[in-house]
Amino acid sequence: MAKKNVSMPLDKSKMPKHVAFIMDGNGRWAKKRGLPRKFGHAEGAKTFRKILRYCKSIGIEYVSFYAFSTENWKRPQDEVNAIMNLFRDYLKDLENFLAEECRAVFIGDKSIFDEDIRLSMEDFERRTAHCDKMTMLLAVNYGGRDEIVNAARILAQKVQDSEMTVSDINEETVNSQLYTACAPDVDLMIRPSGEQRISNFLLWQSAYAEFYYTDVLWPDFSPKHLDAAIEEFSNRKRRFGGI
Ligand code: FPP
Fold it and tell me: Most buried of the four, 78, 89, 142, 227, by CB within 10 Å?
């Protein structure tokens, strides 16, 4: 049988419902061009918007992006400030999200952000909450372990307040307290830039995800690379622990 070319239409029945991206390689992209790292993040943010739009055009319902981890605060202040300013810039994109009927959910502990950013994120979420064509989850000050600890604390508090019992704690109730409660598990996790790690991203949600790695740096990641990842995903046999 002839090998399917990536430019051929994608097989809708084998499309992932939830695709997650670890947007890695911005710094190296900038370094290769003799530019400060923040230029790589600015280019990476453009790729984020391009890939989000492409995901919508091919019918992916849930898309997650790792934009800033709980560990990224350790980076030089100048780089952190540049990323915060990108958040500010992209938070002005609300009207386009509304026009595109794309719901935005910011996952992570938002309490740490400057008030203007935090309020804009909350406003963005509120104003796009009714959009049902696609859901975009943007991870900001996010850590997978932190998320699970947070869920455990909420459930423990509910037990202490007699709102539930210990035996009510199960996968469903834990899941309901994760930042991603509105989304299904991740089907396809994509990490560019040659690194093959999960780096504390969506640990619970990617229990049965298919992983796809590529050497392309995130700012160079394009729809054709996503097509190739989906093509490979559609050829994998998912067994979910069965045979
Ligand atoms: C990892 O690459 C990337 C980050 C820690 C930041 C990602 C942020 C963006 C793409 C901007 C997000 C903005 C919006 C609006 C979504 P790296 O810096 O670790 O790259 P390196 O491994 O090459 O150094």
Answer: 142
